[in-house]
Every structure is written in C-alpha cells, then in structure tokens.
Amino acid sequence: MAYDSLRPYLQVLEQQGLFRWVDKEVDKEWEVGAVYRMIFRAMEEDNRYGIGFRNVKGHEGGRIVAGVIASSRKMIGTVLGCEPTLEAIHERVTAGMNDPIEPVMVDSGPCQDVVIEGEDVDLGKLPVPIWTPEKDAGPYLTPLWVTKDPDSGRRNIGIRRCQIKGKDRTGILFGAPDRGGAIHHAKYKARGEHMPAAIFIGGDPVQYLVAPARYGADELAVAGGIRGEAIPMVKCKTVDLEVPAESEIVIEGHVLMDEVEPEGPFGEFTGFMAGGREGPVFQVTCITHRKDPIVLGVISQFPPSESSMIKRALLEAGLKKHLTVDLNLPGITDVHALEAGGGTATLWISMKKMYAGHVDQTAMGVMGHFGMSYFKWIVLCDDDIDINDPFMRDWVMAWRVRPDKDIKTIPNTASVELDPSSFEPGKTQADITGTKMIIDATKKWDYPAVSLPPLEMMHQVADNWDAYGLPPLDELKLPRES
Ligand SMILES: Cc1cc2nc3c(=O)[nH]c(=O)nc-3n(C[C@H](O)[C@H](O)[C@H](O)COP(=O)(O)O)c2cc1C
Is 30 exposed, middle or buried (0-12, 13-18, 19+ CB in 10 A)? Predict the structure, then answer.
C-alpha cells in the first residue's frame, strides 16, 4: 500500500470514519491543542479519529491536521496497509526492514510549487499550534528532520520537536547523544561547521512511523520497503540535501554551530513539561511548499499519544528483529513496550528459557540495541504469559519474582534525556546518567499448577454458556496453561 501523499491518505481515513474536518473557527493559541487532547483523554482507542481544522483564526486558508498517523492501531494498520493487529504491524515493518527500497531522485515535486527565500521567509505565516497551552514556550512543529553524516554522507531521518522562534529561526531538540541526528550534529560541531538540515511535513504517512527507530538502513528506504515503492525525492533549493517530493512543506537551513539559546519547555511524551534549557538554533534559508499547504502535527505530550503509539509499535518490531535475527537469540516469543512509559521506559519480554544465563543475556541484548537510553525497566517472563494483558503482568510480578535474587540494577547507563527522575535540577544533558533494571520474572523451578479448573472445562462451559440461561459472558481470559 503506497499513498502518493498526505491528501489521498486523508481521504481514505475520512472514508473509514477515522478523520473529520472542523469548520468552526478555532484559536491555535489554546483551543486547537485542547481539542486534540480529547482524542486521547476522552475517546476509547477504537473510537478515535484524527481532526483537521480549516478555519484557523488569523490564518485564512490555513489548515492544521493532527491525530492522523497513529491515534489507534486501526489507523496504523491503514497507514501500513495491513490488519490492525500488533502481529500484522510488526510483520509489515519487519518486511520493510528486510527488503528496503532506496528512494529515487526526481526532477521536480509539488513540495516546491511555492518557493520562498530571503526576506520573504516568514514561519509565522504557517498555522502552527500551541500543543500545551500556557505551558509550551511557543508554537511547535513536530516534523521530520533530514541530515547527513558529514563523513559517510549517510542520511538520517528523525521526528524532532521544532520551536518556532521567529520569522526564520527555530529551536531543535536532538535528545540523547545516541540518536542518529545528534551524532551528525556532534560531527559537524567537531568540524566547526554549521550543519545543513531540512524539515519536511506530510507526504506518505509511513515516513512518520519509521522515523523513530534505527535500522542500520536509511529510514526512507525502510519506508520504501514497507510501501513496496521507492519514495521520490527532490533536491533542496539552498542546502545539499534531498527531501520527499510529495511533502506538504519543506523548511531548509542550517543548525548553527556558534549559537545556543533557551529552547522549550514543551509538553513531552513522558507526561511532563520538559526543556527551557540552552539548545541549538536552526537558521532558515528557504521555505518551499505545495499550494495551500497542510500543517501536519503528531500528537505527543501526556501518554497515551500518537508518540507513544508509534514508539510502542515500531520499537517493538525493531527490537524483535534485533534480538531474534541480528543477535540470533533463541526462545523469544514476544516483546511489549508499555505505553504509559511513552513506549520507551518499560519493556516486557516473554520467552522460553533455554539455558543458564539466557534471561540476563537477552536483557543485555536489549541494552545493546539502538537507543541505549531507552527501557530503564526490562522485565522478562515465561512464554505462558500474555504480556499484553496488564493483569497477567501484575500477577507474574507478584509471584514469580524474588526481589533479592531476581532484580539487578545497572547504574551509570544512558537515560532518556527527558526523564525527570534522572534530570536533577542544575544538571545539563552531558551530566545525566540513568539506571537500568533487569527483572527476571521467569519461574526458577517447577511451580504448582494454577488454581483454576482445567482449561478444557473452562472452554467447554464458555462454549455452552447459552444453556445456562444466563446473560452472555465477556471475553474469556485465561493463562495459557492451567
Ligand atoms: C511527536 C514526536 C516528537 C519527537 N520529538 C523528538 C525530539 O524533539 N527530539 C528527539 O531526540 N526525539 C524526538 N522524538 C523521538 C524521535 O522519534 C527519535 O528521537 C528520532 O526520530 C530518532 O531518530 P534518530 O535516532 O534516527 O535520530 C519524537 C518522536 C515523536 C513521535
């Protein structure tokens, strides 16, 4: 399934009842952010839809769209063209990782229908909302950034928050130093050169799903593998970079080497405001866009959010491949990154334990994965447990863990830079470290049978429930063994 651009994709979402336009006039300074919050604070996952605003106060003709990438698993399935199950999502992403298709260059694209350079550049003309009113430092884009490694020329794509600070100036948060974009930035800094960078917004929504992970391959090639077609790219006008030709908006410029200034705070995926520290500056040289461009935002802030949904689904897929294919570790049945931790704090793994040391080595394999700042809690349990079921996770923690023997902490490891528990007041990014905890929640010896009737009896009764003349049952939830 390949969407040419954001626009046909929105039509598909609309047909499926997963997207609505709003015609009421809205104030982007507070109202838009508050309405978007309702998608995650007042709608069950199966009922969520993305929202577009086309009557934004002070921005005649401007359009803001958000909640359209990952408000629900059903929506992620629509982006990927697969069933809305985690298994199908993981399968599609893994297929893209295994068979990436490199982007192709084209001579021109709609993202350059309008070209604005020099004095005419004015980011204030774009309707960019305040996501967490009265708390964010200003309007923020949540776009895709492209940079290149100055040594190898290898491209990196990442979603990064982007504070609009003036007509031709934004902030950027590179996050932990292990991120692809942060590595490029450090290399340019060591050379004393400004870093060419470009922001792009819109295009095939699959680009937003693949950006947060790292694959050892160009993220856009992984996106090409998933969609089964190469992503067409055009050359930027003022920097030596390429961007997807079908984007809505492209902002070109340089991350300056000789300037820092306060960036943030911004409502973050952890559920807390974060920032207000010194950060790099992006000096804009050119804006190009389609006619009547759409500003697409990705809803982050308090979990659950699009950010936690994306991270969860994609990091799970990437980790599964890393553990089972790249490291060739046996016995792993499932991995699950909990959304309350934004998809990056707590990880559960179910596995068939096969040899002494298997559990700890699997946990170490997680820590050796990309994003070494991720997953401060790593819990490993036997494969009889459905780790997607919160009650079963609590049950396993209650009865299969002996704290003095089964829990290890590993101090002085990388921390998610926005984790308020690691970021002591007065410290800078360079100072912060965190701790990882490995919890071995597997059975260490044979356990007694579980205190439930045998599974066959439970199924027999459930299948025959009508015969008892009682109201219908809800979902039958059983451990996999009894
Ligand atoms: C909505 C959203 C906003 C994000 N903002 C940032 C950010 O400002 N800085 C950052 O390092 N990561 C941010 N992330 C996490 C990024 O997905 C991730 O760091 C980045 O894409 C990793 O790519 P890289 O390691 O290839 O650079 C954000 C993710 C989402 C979904």
Answer: middle
